[in-house]
Amino acid sequence: APDSNVVDQAVLATAALLWLAVIYEAVSLARQRDNRARRALLLTFVALALAATFFTPWVYLATQDVTGLHNLADLVARCAVLLASLGAQSLLLHLTQEQAAATRMSRQRAGAMTAAMVLLVVLFVLAPVHETGTLRMTSAFGDSPWVSGYLFVFSGYLAIALVDVLRGGLRYAPKAGAALSLALRLIAIGCGFGLLYVA
């Protein structure tokens, strides 16, 4: 379908741009290895790049061919999105908190993300998505309660993480310097668009 092709091309272009951002951020981090905010930003870009890559049709299908597991790429991509959301949370914490507090709070959020990821894997295993491959797993198997639960866990955790980052960005933007304030407001706007996607 033409609409599907447009979406697939957009995902491919997004993946390419994200991998360029990964390269740029990795080079920058090499000069500032102790910068935890940059590490969190690199994690976010890598995870988003992986998610976009596994959602591209040829990687999606190749994953099925190599592993023999139908729709595995959907699970990998969604787990990568959860990891990216943790990276964004950690980035905000390291920009706005003392290092010890930021590390402690990042670990708490990592625990929540791990629990969500484990639940996502369990629901994927239980869902009837292993019989046939499809590029639109959640549409093709959306009538299954296991797939509904799978989407609920993914969307629910993503919404919580986005609200966390959005609230933090808006709270600290007025107290920050001009450049950081602008960055925090842009992050908050991005989270707002993310919440529209979740809705």
What does the secondary structure layout of this molecule look like, with pairings?
Elements lengths: L1 H30 L4 H20 L1 H11 L4 H25 L2 H28 L10 H4 L4 H28 L5 H21 L1
Helix pairs in contact: 1-2, 2-4, 4-5, 4-7, 5-7, 7-8
Supply the key terms.
199 residues; mainly alpha; globular
Report on the architecture of this protein.
This protein is mostly helical and 199 residues long. 84% of the residues lie in helices and 0% in strands. Helix 5 runs antiparallel to helix 7 (145-172). The protein is globular and about 55 Å long.
Strand content: under 5%
Q: End-to-end span in angstroms? A: 25 Å
Helical/strand content category:
mainly alpha
Poorly predicted tracts of residues: none
Helix and strand string, N-terminal first? Answer: HHHHHHHH
Summarize the structure.
With about 200 residues, the chain is mainly α.
